[in-house]
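Bug #2210: token dump truncated for 4-carboxymuconolactone decarboxylase?
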Amino acid sequence: MSNDRFDKGMKVRREVLGDAHVDRAEAAKTDFDLQFQTLITEGAWGNVWAGDGISRRERSMITLALLAATGNFEEIPMHIRATARTGASKQDVLEAFQHVAIYAGVPRANHALKLAKATYAEMEEQDQ
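Reproduced locally. Full output below:
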């Protein structure tokens, strides 16, 4: 499958998440989830993340806050790792999760911070 939005989405997805992550996701793709994966690549990455209205740093902060606020914790580590490419600092992430605490609840922010701390620790260990 190839079209402009898909190709643009794949490019942005690789820039944000890294080749290794995208290669693993692509290798795991099956006929069953092909349509869904295409939707994500075109919609999330080829449209939303490819937009020029706000920076990737800001998109990272918004994405992490929304994941935490809605209790979608599974993707938080992936998006924490992406901050190394988007420019969102640890302080930016902390600020985003503080907003989550106030507007969506302390338990969700607390769990998101726990995941972020563990992921940052893994990232630092891998850098050594």
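Output looks complete on our side. The two ends are 39 Å apart (CA to CA). Marking as cannot-reproduce; reopen if the truncation happens again.
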